[in-house]
Protein backbone atom coordinates (compact mmCIF):
# COMPACT_ATOMS: atom_id res chain seq x y z
CA UNK A 1 0.00 0.00 0.00
CA UNK A 2 1.37 3.38 -0.97
CA UNK A 3 1.55 5.73 1.94
CA UNK A 4 2.08 9.17 0.50
CA UNK A 5 0.81 12.53 1.65
CA UNK A 6 0.79 15.44 -0.79
CA UNK A 7 -0.28 18.97 -0.05
CA UNK A 8 -1.35 21.31 -2.85
CA UNK A 9 -3.63 24.33 -2.31
CA UNK A 10 -7.02 23.39 -3.84
CA UNK A 11 -7.45 26.84 -5.39
CA UNK A 12 -5.08 29.58 -6.55
CA UNK A 13 -5.06 32.80 -8.61
CA UNK A 14 -3.41 32.69 -12.02
CA UNK A 15 0.28 33.52 -11.68
CA UNK A 16 0.28 32.90 -7.94
CA UNK A 17 3.27 31.10 -6.41
CA UNK A 18 1.99 28.05 -4.54
CA UNK A 19 3.67 25.82 -1.97
CA UNK A 20 3.71 22.10 -2.81
CA UNK A 21 4.70 19.39 -0.31
CA UNK A 22 5.08 15.66 -0.75
CA UNK A 23 6.00 12.98 1.78
CA UNK A 24 6.14 9.21 1.36
CA UNK A 25 6.67 6.31 3.75
CA UNK A 26 9.86 4.53 2.73
CA UNK A 27 12.66 2.92 4.77
CA UNK A 28 15.47 4.48 2.64
CA UNK A 29 17.76 1.64 3.67
CA UNK A 30 21.32 2.77 2.87
CA UNK A 31 22.88 -0.63 2.19
CA UNK A 32 25.70 0.20 4.61
CA UNK A 33 24.09 -1.38 7.69
CA UNK A 34 24.29 -4.90 9.03
CA UNK A 35 21.42 -6.81 10.59
CA UNK A 36 21.57 -8.51 14.01
CA UNK A 37 23.03 -11.67 12.45
CA UNK A 38 25.85 -9.75 10.74
CA UNK A 39 24.21 -10.10 7.35
CA UNK A 40 24.18 -7.04 5.14
CA UNK A 41 20.84 -5.28 4.83
CA UNK A 42 20.45 -4.70 1.08
CA UNK A 43 20.11 -1.14 -0.17
CA UNK A 44 16.53 -0.03 -0.76
CA UNK A 45 16.09 3.65 -1.49
CA UNK A 46 13.96 5.90 -3.65
CA UNK A 47 16.23 7.19 -6.38
CA UNK A 48 14.00 9.61 -8.24
CA UNK A 49 11.08 11.88 -7.51
CA UNK A 50 9.15 13.65 -10.26
CA UNK A 51 6.23 16.07 -10.17
CA UNK A 52 4.28 16.81 -13.34
CA UNK A 53 1.73 19.59 -13.85
CA UNK A 54 -0.78 18.57 -16.50
CA UNK A 55 1.76 16.17 -17.96
CA UNK A 56 4.70 18.60 -18.03
CA UNK A 57 7.57 17.98 -15.63
CA UNK A 58 7.87 20.92 -13.21
CA UNK A 59 10.11 19.46 -10.52
CA UNK A 60 12.36 16.44 -10.16
CA UNK A 61 14.96 15.29 -7.66
CA UNK A 62 17.47 12.48 -7.33
CA UNK A 63 17.74 10.86 -3.91
CA UNK A 64 20.84 9.23 -2.45
CA UNK A 65 21.51 7.00 0.59
CA UNK A 66 22.04 10.07 2.83
CA UNK A 67 18.37 11.03 2.50
CA UNK A 68 16.53 9.97 5.66
CA UNK A 69 13.59 7.56 5.84
CA UNK A 70 10.15 8.85 4.81
CA UNK A 71 11.56 11.58 2.54
CA UNK A 72 9.84 14.95 2.52
CA UNK A 73 10.07 17.37 -0.40
CA UNK A 74 8.76 20.92 -0.52
CA UNK A 75 8.94 23.31 -3.50
CA UNK A 76 7.13 26.21 -5.14
CA UNK A 77 5.58 26.55 -8.55
CA UNK A 78 3.54 29.12 -10.45
CA UNK A 79 -0.14 28.26 -10.88
CA UNK A 80 -0.92 28.66 -14.59
CA UNK A 81 -3.94 26.50 -15.42
CA UNK A 82 -6.43 24.34 -13.55
CA UNK A 83 -5.19 20.78 -13.67
CA UNK A 84 -3.60 17.79 -12.02
CA UNK A 85 -0.33 17.65 -10.17
CA UNK A 86 0.98 14.08 -10.37
CA UNK A 87 3.76 12.82 -8.11
CA UNK A 88 5.92 9.79 -8.81
CA UNK A 89 8.57 8.11 -6.69
CA UNK A 90 10.80 5.43 -8.24
CA UNK A 91 12.83 3.11 -6.00
CA UNK A 92 15.84 0.80 -6.48
CA UNK A 93 13.64 -2.10 -7.54
CA UNK A 94 12.07 0.03 -10.25
CA UNK A 95 8.80 0.08 -8.34
CA UNK A 96 6.83 3.29 -8.90
CA UNK A 97 4.55 4.85 -6.27
CA UNK A 98 2.18 7.60 -7.31
CA UNK A 99 -0.08 10.25 -5.84
CA UNK A 100 -1.94 13.18 -7.33
CA UNK A 101 -3.82 16.35 -6.41
CA UNK A 102 -6.07 18.79 -8.27
CA UNK A 103 -5.60 22.53 -8.37
CA UNK A 104 -8.24 25.02 -9.54
CA UNK A 105 -6.79 28.23 -11.02
CA UNK A 106 -9.02 31.27 -11.45
CA UNK B 1 33.39 6.67 19.13
CA UNK B 2 33.30 10.27 20.31
CA UNK B 3 29.58 10.52 20.88
CA UNK B 4 29.02 7.45 23.09
CA UNK B 5 32.02 8.49 25.20
CA UNK B 6 30.68 12.02 25.61
CA UNK B 7 27.23 10.81 26.64
CA UNK B 8 28.83 8.38 29.07
CA UNK B 9 30.68 11.22 30.77
CA UNK B 10 27.45 13.24 30.92
CA UNK B 11 25.58 10.29 32.37
CA UNK B 12 28.28 9.78 34.97
CA UNK B 13 28.27 13.51 35.82
CA UNK B 14 24.50 13.46 36.26
CA UNK B 15 24.71 10.31 38.35
CA UNK B 16 27.30 11.95 40.60
CA UNK B 17 25.19 15.07 40.90
CA UNK B 18 22.24 12.93 41.87
CA UNK B 19 24.18 10.91 44.39
CA UNK B 20 25.78 13.97 45.93
CA UNK B 21 22.92 16.45 45.58
CA UNK B 22 20.47 14.73 47.85
CA UNK B 23 17.74 17.38 47.48
CA UNK B 24 14.55 15.56 46.44
CA UNK B 25 12.28 17.84 44.48
CA UNK B 26 9.55 15.20 44.41
CA UNK B 27 6.49 15.46 42.18
CA UNK B 28 6.17 18.25 39.63
CA UNK B 29 3.59 20.87 40.65
CA UNK B 30 0.52 20.81 38.33
CA UNK B 31 1.14 24.35 37.02
CA UNK B 32 4.76 23.44 36.18
CA UNK B 33 3.88 20.47 34.00
CA UNK B 34 5.07 20.81 30.40
CA UNK B 35 4.68 18.61 27.37
CA UNK B 36 7.91 17.30 25.89
CA UNK B 37 6.98 19.38 22.83
CA UNK B 38 7.86 22.61 24.64
CA UNK B 39 11.45 21.43 25.13
CA UNK B 40 12.06 21.02 21.39
CA UNK B 41 13.62 23.42 18.89
CA UNK B 42 11.07 25.69 17.14
CA UNK B 43 11.73 23.85 13.85
CA UNK B 44 10.79 20.48 15.33
CA UNK B 45 7.71 22.00 17.01
CA UNK B 46 6.63 23.41 13.64
CA UNK B 47 7.15 19.99 12.05
CA UNK B 48 4.73 18.43 14.54
CA UNK B 49 2.17 21.25 14.37
CA UNK B 50 1.63 21.03 10.60
CA UNK B 51 -0.04 17.85 9.34
CA UNK B 52 1.59 18.27 5.94
CA UNK B 53 5.08 18.04 7.49
CA UNK B 54 4.38 15.68 10.41
CA UNK B 55 5.69 12.26 9.29
CA UNK B 56 3.48 10.57 11.92
CA UNK B 57 0.54 11.35 9.63
CA UNK B 58 1.81 8.59 7.30
CA UNK B 59 0.90 6.08 10.02
CA UNK B 60 -2.43 7.80 10.66
CA UNK B 61 -3.12 7.30 6.94
CA UNK B 62 -2.15 3.63 7.13
CA UNK B 63 -4.26 3.18 10.29
CA UNK B 64 -7.28 4.73 8.58
CA UNK B 65 -6.93 2.13 5.83
CA UNK B 66 -6.64 -0.72 8.35
CA UNK B 67 -9.65 0.58 10.30
CA UNK B 68 -11.90 -0.03 7.27
CA UNK B 69 -10.24 -3.26 6.15
CA UNK B 70 -12.09 -6.51 6.81
CA UNK B 71 -9.90 -9.00 8.68
CA UNK B 72 -10.06 -12.50 10.13
CA UNK B 73 -12.68 -15.23 10.25
CA UNK B 74 -15.44 -12.80 11.31
CA UNK B 75 -15.03 -10.93 8.03
CA UNK B 76 -15.52 -7.66 9.87
CA UNK B 77 -13.48 -4.49 9.99
CA UNK B 78 -12.95 -2.25 13.02
CA UNK B 79 -15.44 0.14 11.42
CA UNK B 80 -17.94 -2.75 11.10
CA UNK B 81 -18.51 -2.66 14.88
CA UNK B 82 -17.22 0.73 16.00
CA UNK B 83 -18.39 2.80 13.03
CA UNK B 84 -16.45 5.94 12.20
CA UNK B 85 -13.24 6.35 14.14
CA UNK B 86 -14.53 9.60 15.68
CA UNK B 87 -16.64 7.31 17.90
CA UNK B 88 -13.41 6.38 19.65
CA UNK B 89 -12.95 9.92 20.94
CA UNK B 90 -13.03 9.83 24.69
CA UNK B 91 -12.73 6.06 24.80
CA UNK B 92 -9.03 5.90 24.06
CA UNK B 93 -8.13 8.83 26.36
CA UNK B 94 -8.60 6.60 29.40
CA UNK B 95 -6.16 3.82 28.55
CA UNK B 96 -4.59 1.84 30.18
CA UNK B 97 -7.96 0.65 31.55
CA UNK B 98 -9.01 -2.36 33.61
CA UNK B 99 -9.77 -5.45 31.55
CA UNK B 100 -12.27 -7.69 33.39
CA UNK B 101 -11.49 -10.66 31.10
CA UNK B 102 -7.87 -10.92 32.23
CA UNK B 103 -8.35 -9.23 35.62
CA UNK B 104 -5.49 -6.87 34.77
CA UNK B 105 -5.02 -3.43 33.25
CA UNK B 106 -4.61 -3.30 29.49
CA UNK B 107 -3.21 -0.53 27.28
CA UNK B 108 -4.64 0.73 23.99
CA UNK B 109 -2.33 -1.36 21.81
CA UNK B 110 -3.13 -4.43 23.95
CA UNK B 111 -6.86 -3.75 23.57
CA UNK B 112 -6.55 -3.51 19.79
CA UNK B 113 -4.68 -6.84 19.71
CA UNK B 114 -7.29 -8.43 21.96
CA UNK B 115 -10.12 -7.10 19.78
CA UNK B 116 -8.46 -8.52 16.68
CA UNK B 117 -7.90 -12.00 18.06
CA UNK B 118 -11.07 -12.40 20.15
CA UNK B 119 -13.65 -10.53 18.05
CA UNK B 120 -12.29 -10.37 14.50
CA UNK B 121 -10.61 -13.78 14.60
CA UNK B 122 -7.66 -12.23 12.78
CA UNK B 123 -3.99 -13.15 13.13
CA UNK B 124 -2.28 -11.42 16.05
CA UNK B 125 -0.38 -8.21 15.43
CA UNK B 126 3.01 -8.16 17.11
CA UNK B 127 3.75 -5.31 19.50
CA UNK B 128 5.82 -2.69 17.71
CA UNK B 129 4.67 -4.05 14.33
CA UNK B 130 3.95 -1.35 11.79
CA UNK B 131 0.29 -2.35 11.49
CA UNK B 132 -0.40 -2.25 15.25
CA UNK B 133 1.43 1.06 15.60
CA UNK B 134 -0.58 2.46 12.69
CA UNK B 135 -3.92 1.41 14.20
CA UNK B 136 -2.95 2.70 17.65
CA UNK B 137 -1.74 5.99 16.16
CA UNK B 138 -4.93 6.34 14.14
CA UNK B 139 -7.19 5.76 17.17
CA UNK B 140 -5.14 7.97 19.49
CA UNK B 141 -5.03 10.67 16.79
CA UNK B 142 -8.84 10.98 17.04
CA UNK B 143 -8.31 12.40 20.52
CA UNK B 144 -5.80 15.07 19.60
CA UNK B 145 -6.38 18.11 21.76
CA UNK B 146 -8.45 16.24 24.34
CA UNK B 147 -7.18 15.85 27.90
CA UNK B 148 -5.68 12.60 29.17
CA UNK B 149 -8.43 11.15 31.37
CA UNK B 150 -7.31 8.21 33.53
CA UNK B 151 -10.34 6.23 34.77
CA UNK B 152 -11.29 6.48 38.44
CA UNK B 153 -11.45 2.70 38.70
CA UNK B 154 -10.40 1.48 42.17
CA UNK B 155 -9.32 -1.84 40.64
CA UNK B 156 -6.50 0.05 38.94
CA UNK B 157 -5.15 1.58 42.16
CA UNK B 158 -2.81 -1.26 43.15
CA UNK B 159 -1.30 -1.24 39.65
CA UNK B 160 -0.88 2.54 39.73
CA UNK B 161 0.93 2.16 43.03
CA UNK B 162 3.20 -0.48 41.48
CA UNK B 163 3.88 1.92 38.62
CA UNK B 164 4.72 4.73 41.02
CA UNK B 165 7.12 2.44 42.86
CA UNK B 166 8.87 1.40 39.64
CA UNK B 167 9.09 5.10 38.67
CA UNK B 168 10.84 5.99 41.91
CA UNK B 169 13.04 2.86 42.26
CA UNK B 170 16.68 3.15 41.28
CA UNK B 171 17.70 0.58 38.69
CA UNK B 172 20.52 -0.46 36.37
CA UNK B 173 24.27 -0.09 36.62
CA UNK B 174 23.89 3.70 36.79
CA UNK B 175 21.48 3.25 39.70
CA UNK B 176 18.99 5.89 38.56
CA UNK B 177 15.23 5.93 38.90
CA UNK B 178 12.88 7.57 36.39
CA UNK B 179 12.12 10.21 39.05
CA UNK B 180 15.80 11.12 39.49
CA UNK B 181 15.77 12.65 36.03
CA UNK B 182 12.15 13.34 35.14
CA UNK B 183 10.87 14.67 38.48
CA UNK B 184 14.02 16.17 39.98
CA UNK B 185 16.13 17.29 37.01
CA UNK B 186 13.70 17.83 34.14
CA UNK B 187 15.04 21.31 33.50
CA UNK B 188 18.60 20.09 32.96
CA UNK B 189 20.26 18.72 29.87
CA UNK B 190 21.82 15.31 29.38
CA UNK B 191 24.52 15.09 26.71
CA UNK B 192 23.05 18.16 25.04
CA UNK B 193 19.48 16.83 25.00
CA UNK B 194 16.66 18.16 27.16
CA UNK B 195 15.78 15.75 29.99
CA UNK B 196 12.03 16.68 29.91
CA UNK B 197 9.26 15.70 32.32
CA UNK B 198 8.32 12.42 30.62
CA UNK B 199 4.64 13.13 30.02
CA UNK B 200 3.29 10.61 27.48
CA UNK B 201 1.18 13.12 25.53
CA UNK B 202 2.20 12.30 21.96
CA UNK B 203 2.39 8.49 21.74
CA UNK B 204 2.73 6.66 19.46
CA UNK B 205 5.12 9.33 18.21
CA UNK B 206 7.57 9.86 15.38
CA UNK B 207 11.11 10.07 16.66
CA UNK B 208 13.61 11.53 14.22
CA UNK B 209 16.27 9.31 15.78
CA UNK B 210 14.18 6.20 15.06
CA UNK B 211 13.19 7.44 11.58
CA UNK B 212 9.83 5.92 12.34
CA UNK B 213 6.94 5.80 14.74
CA UNK B 214 7.29 4.06 18.09
CA UNK B 215 5.29 3.20 21.18
CA UNK B 216 5.59 4.53 24.71
CA UNK B 217 7.00 1.16 25.73
CA UNK B 218 9.74 1.45 23.12
CA UNK B 219 10.65 4.85 24.58
CA UNK B 220 10.74 3.44 28.11
CA UNK B 221 12.88 0.55 26.89
CA UNK B 222 15.32 3.16 25.49
CA UNK B 223 15.46 4.89 28.88
CA UNK B 224 16.08 1.61 30.72
CA UNK B 225 18.91 0.72 28.35
CA UNK B 226 20.25 4.24 28.97
CA UNK B 227 20.62 3.60 32.69
CA UNK B 228 21.93 0.12 31.83
CA UNK B 229 19.02 -1.74 33.36
CA UNK B 230 17.50 -4.81 31.74
CA UNK B 231 14.32 -3.59 30.03
CA UNK B 232 10.99 -5.16 30.94
CA UNK B 233 9.44 -7.45 28.33
CA UNK B 234 7.18 -5.77 25.76
CA UNK B 235 3.60 -5.70 27.02
CA UNK B 236 4.64 -6.89 30.50
CA UNK B 237 2.65 -6.00 33.62
CA UNK B 238 5.53 -3.80 34.78
CA UNK B 239 5.37 -1.65 31.63
CA UNK B 240 1.58 -1.36 31.85
CA UNK B 241 1.88 -0.33 35.52
CA UNK B 242 4.43 2.33 34.53
CA UNK B 243 2.11 3.54 31.75
CA UNK B 244 -0.70 3.80 34.31
CA UNK B 245 1.46 5.92 36.58
CA UNK B 246 2.63 8.15 33.71
CA UNK B 247 -0.94 8.74 32.52
CA UNK B 248 -2.04 9.61 36.07
CA UNK B 249 0.91 11.98 36.33
CA UNK B 250 -0.10 13.65 33.06
CA UNK B 251 -3.87 13.62 33.74
CA UNK B 252 -5.54 16.59 32.08
CA UNK B 253 -2.71 17.36 29.66
CA UNK B 254 -3.67 17.55 25.98
CA UNK B 255 -3.03 14.56 23.70
CA UNK B 256 -0.82 15.40 20.68
CA UNK B 257 -0.69 12.08 18.79
CA UNK B 258 1.20 11.78 16.51
CA UNK B 259 3.93 13.71 18.28
CA UNK B 260 7.33 14.43 16.75
CA UNK B 261 10.43 14.22 18.95
CA UNK B 262 14.13 14.58 18.13
UniProtKB/TrEMBL annotation, chain A:
Name of this chain's protein: Sulfur-oxidizing protein SoxZ
Any Pfam family the entry gives: SoxZ
Organism: Ancylobacter vacuolatus
Record's signal peptide: none
Domain Sulphur oxidation protein SoxZ residue range list: 9-101
Top-level taxon of the source organism: Bacteria
Source organism phylogeny: Bacteria, Pseudomonadati, Pseudomonadota, Alphaproteobacteria, Hyphomicrobiales
SUPFAM superfamilies linked: E set domains
From TrEMBL, chain B:
EC number: 2.8.5.2
Signal peptide from the UniProt entry: 1-25
Residue ranges constituting the Cytochrome c domain according to the UniProt record: 62-148, 163-255
Compartmental location: Periplasm
InterPro entries: Cyt_c-like_dom, Cyt_c-like_dom_sf, SoxA
Keywords attached to this entry: Electron transport, Heme, Iron, Metal-binding, Periplasm, Signal, Transferase, Transport
Cofactors that this protein relies on: heme
UniProt keyword annotation of Transferase present: yes
Cofactor: binding comment: Binds 1 heme group per subunit.
A Pfam entry, by short name: SoxA-TsdA_cyt-c
Domain of life per record: Bacteria
Location, primary (coarse class): periplasm
Catalytic activity: S-sulfanyl-L-cysteinyl-[SoxY protein] + thiosulfate + 2 Fe(III)-[cytochrome c] = S-(2-sulfodisulfanyl)-L-cysteinyl-[SoxY protein] + 2 Fe(II)-[cytochrome c] + 2 H(+); L-cysteinyl-[SoxY protein] + thiosulfate + 2 Fe(III)-[cytochrome c] = S-sulfosulfanyl-L-cysteinyl-[SoxY protein] + 2 Fe(II)-[cytochrome c] + 2 H(+)
SUPFAM superfamilies on file: Cytochrome c
Assembly, per entry: Heterodimer of SoxA and SoxX.
Family note: Belongs to the SoxA family.
Cited function: C-type monoheme cytochrome, which is part of the SoxAX cytochrome complex involved in sulfur oxidation. The SoxAX complex catalyzes the formation of a heterodisulfide bond between the conserved cysteine residue on a sulfur carrier SoxYZ complex subunit SoxY and thiosulfate or other inorganic sulfur substrates. This leads to the liberation of two electrons, which may be transferred from the SoxAX complex to another cytochrome c that then channels them into the respiratory electron transport chain. Some electrons may be used for reductive CO(2) fixation.
Protein name: SoxAX cytochrome complex subunit A
Origin species: Ancylobacter vacuolatus
Amino acid sequence: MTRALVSVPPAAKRGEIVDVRAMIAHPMETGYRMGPNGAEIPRDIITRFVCTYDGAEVFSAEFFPAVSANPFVSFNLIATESGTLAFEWTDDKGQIETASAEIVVS
Amino acid sequence: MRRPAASLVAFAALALALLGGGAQAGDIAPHERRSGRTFMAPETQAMQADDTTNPGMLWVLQGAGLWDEKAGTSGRSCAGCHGAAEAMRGVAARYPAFDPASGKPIDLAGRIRQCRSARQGAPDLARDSDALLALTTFVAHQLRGMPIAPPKDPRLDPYRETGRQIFTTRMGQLDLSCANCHDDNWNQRLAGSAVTQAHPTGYPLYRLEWQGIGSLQRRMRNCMIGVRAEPFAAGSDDFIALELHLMQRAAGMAIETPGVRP
